[in-house]
Design a protein that fits this description.
It contains 17 helices and no strands. With 435 residues, the protein is an all-alpha fold. It has one domain.
Length: 435
């Protein structure tokens, strides 16, 4: 079939395979830990770990200010010297944002304790999350550089070895030293700190003087602040659920919901791996504005969206049977959340590939408006559904919110950048070519 041949002929497929295997190994190791973690951790312990994890994920995006996305977007428009200056500037801005974030949180939480009461984590865990987020941001910059340089195997080694270190430390502390949630958080933190330092070493040859000159820094902020807002908005889909469940119910229910969510992240593992390979391919080819390149992008988009949907629904069905084999009996109630989360991550995968059109056209503000608007709607929807149908309402709210954000992004992207969406598999498309 022409579509399959087109996929087989692209070098991107090789990188997709490497990224998928890499992401699969990391995610499958974490997924495979469920029998151990659900045996040695209570649902409440698991709720603490997951709350800490999603908090660090959010804060990493805040301190990055979209720097990893901008680095990927701008990489192919500059020569070597300009790329080094850009990478150095992004790194310096990330460190500065981390320091400011730590100061702001401390100024609010130390006198009032408001943040720790809201999130249901102790003060030290919140400060630790900020430090870990900085090193995770450095890791993200290093892996982005490996992506755009198309060093897929280097990326695989870096990401997978980090996962191995994280799991080894976590299991050692839990199994041999009797720690509970503390052992898992220590493993996450230790791996982030170590690989953040390794990431700095990887970035050093590719970064120039870390200058924050006004004009280029202003441009980074103009483009990056909406991306950071968009990241926080996406984070809301995961974190606000935990915060609401923590406050409306308890940490035990958060733990059960998080286990169901963990099953759904197997779909996220696939869509994230494809997105990692897709991003440099997309930015490199969309800028050409050539008919054949655009048609190839559309073909691959169709194959990806269809294949991911089949996988999401299929895994959602299998996972309900798999869950009792994987987890302790205390976590069986998590099966209710799996299918809506799997479908939500299908929407997320489609959303990501269409969101790149807005970023490529420097419409980051529009992208931010979409994500922030749907995130605000998600907060209201999650609250209503949690109060009316219980904890499963969080899963349904996530799926519906992702669906709305995806549709809105597709509508804007199609209008913003004409592509041969109606006839990508025809050899010639006179209507599109005339445009």
């Amino acid at each position: 079939m022409p579509g399959l041949k087109a996929i087989a002929d692209t070098a991107m497929l090789r990188r997709v395979v490497v990224y998928t295997l890499s992401g699969s190994l990391s995610a499958l190791i974490a997924f495979g830990l469920l029998p151990v973690l659900t045996r040695y951790l209570t649902p409440r312990d698991y709720g603490i770990v997951e709350t800490f994890t999603v908090l660090t994920t959010c804060l990493s995006g805040v301190v990055l200010l979209g720097g990893n996305t901008l680095l990927a977007k701008e990489y192919f428009d500059h020569g070597h010297a300009e790329r080094k200056l850009l990478a150095g500037r992004v790194l310096a801005l990330t460190v500065l944002c981390s320091v400011l974030l730590l100061a702001i949180v401390a100024s609010i939480d130390i006198p009032t304790g408001w943040i720790s009461r809201l999130i249901k984590l102790g003060d030290l865990l919140i400060y630790l999350a900020i430090v870990v987020s900085l090193f995770n941001a450095v890791v993200a910059l290093a892996t982005t550089l490996l992506q755009v340089e198309k060093r897929a195997w280097g990326y695989a080694l870096f990401v997978n070895s980090k996962t191995v270190v994280e799991i080894a430390v976590s299991l050692s502390l839990i199994l041999f030293f009797g720690f509970k949630w503390q052992g898992r958080i220590a493993g996450i933190s230790a791996a982030s700190l170590v690989y953040g330092l390794v990431g700095l070493l990887l970035l050093k040859p590719s970064t120039g003087k870390s200058s924050l000159a006004f004009e280029p820094t202003k441009r980074l902020l103009v483009l990056g602040l909406p991306l950071a807002a968009a990241h926080v908005s996406v984070w809301i889909y995961g974190m606000v659920d935990r915060v609401m469940i923590n406050n409306l119910f308890d940490l035990t229910n958060t733990g059960l919901y998080s286990v169901g969510f963990r099953f759904g992240t197997v779909v996220s593992m696939v869509e994230t791996a494809v997105s990692l390979a897709w991003m440099p391919y997309f930015y490199e080819n969309i800028r050409r504005r050539e008919v054949e390149s655009d048609r190839q992008i559309v073909k691959l988009s169709y194959w990806y969206a269809g294949g991911l949907l089949l996988f999401a629904v299929g895994f959602g069905l299998v996972a309900r049977w798999l869950l009792p084999i994987m987890v302790d009996a205390r976590f069986y109630a998590a099966r209710r959340y799996i299918m809506p989360i799997c479908v939500a991550f299908w929407f997320s995968g489609v959303w990501k590939i269409f969101g790149l059109y807005l970023i490529a056209e420097e419409k980051t503000r529009t992208y931010s408006i979409i994500t922030c608007g749907t995130a605000a709607a998600h907060i209201a929807l999650a609250y209503i559904l949690l109060r009316t149908v219980g904890v499963v309402g969080a899963a349904w709210a996530t799926m519906l919110s992702f669906a709305v954000a995806t549709v809105a992004t597709i509508v804007v992207a199609v209008k913003l950048r004409p592509m041969p969406w109606g006839h990508p598999f025809l050899r010639r498309s006179p209507e599109f070519e005339s445009k």
